Amino acid sequence: MLDDETITDIADQLVEAGRSRVPIERLTARYPDMEVEDSYAVQRLWRSRNEETGRRVVGHKIGLTSRAMQLATGITEPDYGIVFDDMVFENGASVEWERYSHPRVEVELAFVLGKDVSGPDATIFDVLNATEYVVPALEILDSRIEMADRTIVDTISDNAAMGAMVIGGNPTRPRDVDLRWIGAILYKNQTVEETGLAAGVLNHPAAGVYWLANKIAAHGEHLHAGEIILAGSFTRPMWVHPGDTVLADYGPLGTVTCRFE
Q1: Worst-scoring range by mean pLDDT, 16-20, 77-81, 137-141, 193-197?
Q2: Which domains are assigned to the chain?
Q3: pTM tops 0.85
Q4: Alpha carbon of 48 to those of 11, 96, 160, 223: distances in Å?
């Protein structure tokens, strides 16, 4: 376990990396004995530092929930991060590419909660009952830590690589659709790059949400009504560059799109 001084130093480095857009050296290269709980301690302090500047938490993201993402990263367990208010873009947004380091895009479902969900014994039925609606989303990944050879310790410390999200399409109640069979076609500049089904996320996208509720219960936290929960990608991350237009077609759930400037 890392001492408090080291955790504070890492969190402050990450705050500066977010400002400068210059990723810091991989943490596991500098602290080979760093553990998952150390990483979440760093993330919580990083969150506090950002809240002190006026940023407001509006939800959470869950990462590494699908086999596709685990194979792409070499990391075999889920993680989570928080979503600030300035990370949420509307459908059709123009996104400043230089605001992020190594931006990539993933296809996800966002759960908007109408009720609280609390662990440590939350179930998929609790999540479905608490969800006001699900909606298509694009997640924009960011990297405040060097990407090469990252482990889950690095990723968690880096707020699970959360950069931003774009919400669009048709809000849909979970009872009106089989969430496992929601599919998406991901286009970049009118070319199909990825396809996937939401069942790729732990066999049901709501499974990631109750996993999160149970995970954060250990820290005395719960998921709040009104929060947006990104349930995890069911495609591999797609690199984007200035000038790229991204569109995900979810069939009956509509489309979500953005352009990088």
Answers
A1: 77-81
A2: 56-260 (3.90.850.10)
A3: yes
A4: 10, 25, 16, 18
